[in-house]
Predict the structure.
Amino acid sequence: MNLQGKTVAVTGASGMIGVYICRSLLRAGVNVIGVVRNPAKAAFLADEGVIFRQADLADTAALTRAFAGCDAVVANAAMYVALKSMSAWAEHEKANLDGTRNVFDAAHQAGVRRLVQISTFGIYKWSVLRTLDENSPQLDGARRQGGPYRASKQISERMAWDMAASLDLELTTLRPTAVYGARDDNTMRQIYKLLRLPVLPLPSISFPFVYAGDVADAVTGALRNDASIGQTYNVGGAGHQVSDFLKAVVTAAGHGPAVLGLPMPVRIRIDNSKAEREIGFRNRPPAEALAEIIAEDPPQHR
C-alpha cells in the first residue's frame, strides 16, 4: 500500500505503543485516526496531527463509526496488567478477546479490509534450548497457560486469523517481545524506581527487549508491503542481560545505582530475520533508544 495520503485508524492510540505507532504513520504521510476512550490522555498527539475518535472496545457501533473512511486499522489496544485478584482473567478476556472480536467486526462493517494486529511473543512456549521463530510451539490459551495476559493474547491472535478468513480481511500480525518506551507504565516505570537505590546486585538472564519505536516502524513497514498480508512476524530485541540493560538506563539517565550484574546461563532468544527481510524491522541498540526515551520522559517525571 502506498501510504501517502491514506487514512489509518489506531486503537489504543493513547497507550505507550500506540503513541509510537501514530508518530511512525504520521512520518509516512498517513492521516492518522486515534481511536481511544479518553482523547485527553494523549492530547499532545492532536497537536502533532492525530485526529481522535472516541470509542470503547466494548462498543462495536462506536468502533464502526470510528473506522469509517479508513484504509486500514491497527488493532493495538489490549490489556496488560499483573492482576492478582480473581477478576484477572475476566478483565483480560473483556479487553483482549471481546475487544478483538469487536474491532474485527467493526472493521468489516465499516468496509475496512486491511488490518495489522499487535500480538506478543508471550504466546510462545518459552525455552532456553531453542530460538523462537514464527512457527515455534504456542501456549494453550484455552487452558490459560502462561497467565491471563499471555493466554488471552494467544486466543486473541487465533481469533483474529479465524475472523480474517471468515470476513475476507487482509491481516498481518506482529509479535513484539518485552516492549519499552516513553510513558511506559510497565517496564520503564519499574526500572526508574530502581534508580533511587545506591547499589543493585542483580542475578541476570538474557532477555529480548524491544523499543516501542521499532515496533511502530514495523507496523508502518507491514502496511507498506502488501506481501505481508497473511503473514506473522516476530519483532523483538536481541537478547540482552537484564543487568546490562539496567546499566544502559543508568548511563542514559546520568544517575542511578551501581549495577552488579551476576550473569546466569539462561537465555531467551527470538528470530527476527523474517521481519527484517520483509517489513524493514530494525532493532535499535538500547543506548540509542534509551537516549530518546529519557529525553522525552525523564525519570523525575515518574
Observations:
- The chain has a mean pLDDT of 93.
- The chain has ten helices and eleven strands.
